[in-house]
Amino acid sequence: MIQKERLTEQFFEFVKIGSESGNEKDMGERLVKECRALGLEVVTDNAGASYGSNGFNVLAYLPGTMEGEPFLLSAHMDTVKPGNGIVPFIKDGVIMSGEDTILGGDDKSGICGILEAVRSILEDGTPHRAAEILFSIGEEGGMKGAKAFDVSLLKSRRGYIFDSSGDVGKVIIGAPGQSKVSADVIGKRAHAGLAPETGISAIQVMAKAIAKMNLLRIDEETTCNIGEIHSEFATNIVPDRCHMFAEVRSRNLDKLNAQVAHMEQCLREACKEAGAELQFDPYTNYVSYRVDPESETVKTVLEAFGRMGLEPLVAMGGGGSDANIYNQKGIESVVLGTGMTKVHTTEETITVENLHRTAVLAEELLTH
Ligand SMILES: [Zn+2]
After folding, report:
1. Has this prediction a pTM greater than 0.85?
2. Closest to 90 in 3D by CA, of 351, 338, 340, 354
């Protein structure tokens, strides 16, 4: 049986282990120990080393005692900042932290829910499916751990990612993809006082290009934002370089690509007019996904909600998560609400009830 007290205790222990993105080593080691104590076979990788983190992904295998394809249960072990020295406490059934840190329920609620479910099943000898349990690093700030993870280690063709705000009962079946756009306008340097007419101001060219761009809300499924403009010269120099960094998000890949092309066109035209050069470097950060609401993946989770007496909420997500990466790598994945609220702020909370339901949901998925 899921034991609320034991679960809450483990949650407290885990949030106290600082694991800001890039520094997940201690948490990873703790998770390896925990999985081994449950009798699971554990594999770790070198994912962190590829981008300067001391952490590693932790994959554990739960052999099944029931028929059925294995599936993936996943949560990420890293947190945003400030995530060190977290002091959790409970007030009226709500778990929160001191004012100077996040709580870290994102995503340790998911981790603890999955582990308590496995513990409960193994203790009670409940018949269960085979599962692959993946605790990833570097989710915050670009899903770097999931990107570096070797999915050929997995047999699962579908996955449940316990990593969303919203009460247990919420399932996210799609999310936008994101491209990043880096662009540099190269003009011509000149003395701004003696001969400015011989120069080409990269700042001016960039400004003209941006003035023509459609930005921010493009349509109901596409957004675009410039986050960085950089050029720094003495005022007596006509600047020959100006850098821009932007993002485009869309649930529709064609629209995403069209927006990137539109930005390039605005820049090219402005450069051509002024005789400047353009370096344009877009790259795909992650692609969008949409899981069919009629698929086994979604039906299975809706049935679990039904058995738990929960009001289901099928939603589209607004940001990227490990699910974008797993879907891209061929594992049909949805994201589940664990009840975390105000994530990425020092006001983050989760109720003991939602923490408990997260574990019950994981158990329901594993035992049906
Ligand atoms: Zn998260």
Report:
1. yes
2. 351
Neighbours of 198 (CB within 10 A): 11
Whole-number Å distance, alpha carbon 126 to ligand 1 midpoint, is: 29
The DSSP letter of residue 153 is G
Q: Is 78 a catalytic residue?
A: yes
Distance 102 CA to ligand 1 centre (A): 12
Q: Identify the active-site residue in 34, 106, 132, 139.
A: 139
Where exactly are the structural domains of the chain? 4-175+288-366, 177-286
Q: Residue 20, Cβ neighbours under 10 Å: how many?
A: 19
Per-residue pLDDT of the chain (368 residues; tens, 9 = 90+): 999 999 999 999 999 999 999 999 999 999 999 999 999 999 999 999 999 999 999 999 999 999 989 999 999 999 999 999 999 999 999 999 999 999 999 999 999 999 999 999 999 999 999 999 999 999 998 999 999 999 999 999 999 999 999 999 999 999 999 999 999 999 999 999 999 999 999 999 999 999 999 999 999 999 999 999 999 999 999 999 999 999 999 999 899 999 999 999 999 999 999 999 999 999 999 999 999 999 999 999 999 999 999 999 999 998 899 999 999 999 999 999 999 999 999 999 999 999 999 999 999 999 99
Largest CA distance in the chain: 85
Q: What is the CA(140)–ligand 1 centre distance, in A?
A: 7
- For the domain bounded by 4-175+288-366, which CATH number is listed? 3.40.630.10
CATH topology of domain 177-286: Alpha-Beta Plaits (3.30.70)
227 Cα to the center of ligand 1, angstroms: 22
List, in sequence order, every residue forming a beta bridge with 332; answer none if it has no partner: 158
Task: Note if 197 is an active site residue.
Answer: no
- Cis omega (within 30 of 0) for bond into 92: no
Ligand 1: centre distance to CA 338 (Å): 10
Q: Catalytic one among 24, 78, 140, 332?
A: 78
